[in-house]
Request: fold
Amino acid sequence: MHRTGGRRVMADAVADLREDGHTDWREYGPLALPPILACALDLIAERGYHATSVRDLARRVGVTVPALYYHYENKQAILVELLMGSMGSALGRCRTAVAEAGHDPVDRFSALVECVVLFMTHRASLAILDTELRSLEPANRERFVAARDELEALMRRTVLEGVEAGDFTTPYPTDAGRAVLVMCQAVAQWYRPDGPLDAQQVAERYVAIALASVGHRSRPDAKRRPARSAATAAR
Reply:
């Protein structure tokens, strides 16, 4: 751990909160956070940020308040690490998904939608934390919004690429991209692992819905295979 700009920073960022913390953008293991962040995530989900005190968190973790402050300067720093880490992880996976999809606009769009939905299903506890955006101090909120805008811009570009290539017919590519992203992000609010569909099935269904939303039109000469995981393709 070291200090940067007056705040404490963990020397080794948690893999699940890093942009490069994945080897395969479709693959997820259980969310692995250090005790302070894991307990903070649980408490904020239970009570809300403002109703969670540093003393409550220290008690839940099983450490003293000074021990907690050794790692994080204050409660705001913990929220920032969770929110920025979650957004960074999602962005990293999305960039990889789009890059690996190649140059075809439909494949790139499909991969991006699939990636966002998979993140919302596998990392729902982190994803729904963005409701605490209102609890961020102005400078921290600005950083988070900038990262969120980057994801919106990535979605917008993939839709525009599809329109320019003649694959998508929506007359409102910016609005369509925003609507698709909001639709995908909402999955975190209702998805349950023990539900009728697994995460991959939900993602594939949402790719189909998203393609319809942007007015996908197959070209007669197109020989396109839907983006699917190896496991799904084997079924």
User: Anything to note?
Assistant: Confidence is low (pLDDT under 50) at residues 1-11, 223-235. DSSP finds eleven helices and two strands in the chain.
